TrEMBL record:
InterPro entries: HotDog_dom_sf, THEM6_lcsJ_thioesterase. It comes from the Bacteria. It comes from Leucobacter coleopterorum. CDD domains: 4HBT. This is Thioesterase. SUPFAM superfamilies: Thioesterase/thiol ester dehydrase-isomerase. Coiled coil: none annotated.
Length: 187
């Protein structure tokens, strides 16, 4: 229930009031660690990071105009892979923000980087966790939207993005097979 509230709050109040962004800009979505985010060790549960990232991605696509394209074209995004590395724990009541940015494309998907950042009055902001997300855009009527069509409809240019070979290799290595083997097994 708490994630639903966060999502609605960001989509109705935070995103529309945030500054407009270009397709390649990063968004900064502000959050706080609530008691419902905690695990038994009294820090933010690792699964909550992924849920909060979802809210931050919607903030980005709302503010960079992509959400309007999705609605007009009857498309929607789905995560097909993600990896996250944790450096420090987020503790009860701490404020943090998530910086979200589209970092590039392969032939099937859009890649994003998301960073959990804590402000510090005495030092530069500190990255507590970083994630990479691979997402496909699907048609509500069925099928995957080709990246070329996404770029065309959003006005983005693939050459404006510089996706590292390491991230592309991760995306390739973590793909699941789309069919069963000849014996009908998925193993």
């Amino acid at each position: 229930m708490h994630m639903l509230f966060r999502t609605i709050w960001h989509m109705l109040f935070v995103g529309p009031r945030g500054s407009k962004l270009a397709f390649g800009d990063f968004s900064r979505s502000r959050f706080r660690v609530w008691p419902t985010d905690l695990d038994l060790l009294q820090h933010m549960n690792n699964g909550k990071y992924l849920s909060v990232m979802d809210v931050a991605r919607f903030d980005l696509i709302q503010r960079n105009g992509t959400m309007k394209v999705f609605k007009r074209e009857n498309w929607y995004p789905v995560v097909v892979g993600q990896t996250i590395s944790y450096r420090k724990s987020l503790n009860p009541w701490q404020r943090f923000w998530i910086e979200s940015k589209i970092i590039g494309f392969d032939e099937q998907a859009v890649y994003m980087e998301q960073r959990f950042v804590r402000p510090d009055a005495d030092r530069a902001p500190e990255i507590y966790a970083r994630a990479y997300v691979r997402a496909r855009i699907l048609r509500r009527g069925g099928g995957v939207v080709p990246v070329a069509e996404i770029l065309e409809k959003t006005g983005a240019r693939a050459e404006d993005f510089d996706l590292s070979d390491d991230i592309l290799a991760w995306g390739q290595a973590t793909r699941l097979p789309s069919t069963r083997d000849a014996a009908g097994s998925i193993w």
